[in-house]
Here is the input.
Amino acid sequence: MPDAAEAAELIGEIGILPDLVILGIHRGEGVAQLDGLRQRVPQLTSLPTLVIASDKSLELRQKMERRGVEVARKPIDPDALHRRIDALLRPAISLTG
Here is the structure.
């Protein structure tokens, strides 16, 4: 999604929440992007979330951890990304499966 407003609009249109939020961020924008999305669609706060970032700072990691968000560093191997997604979805699958 290009921005939080468009993502919120799409979720409102279809009326269905995703199982997982994956947010690619640019340096310095991550917390603002995540917070903006969660303000527009508060239900997303309870969903597993993975942020993919080139920012390797401890500050970003700590801010995301306080929000209950996992961080993957760019570049990310496709197999590693798949494993991270599976791990984030596993609790939801065990509840429904």
Q: What stands out?
A: The chain has one domain: 4-96. The domain at 4-96 is CATH 3.40.50.2300 (Rossmann fold). Strands lie at 21-25, 49-53, 70-73.
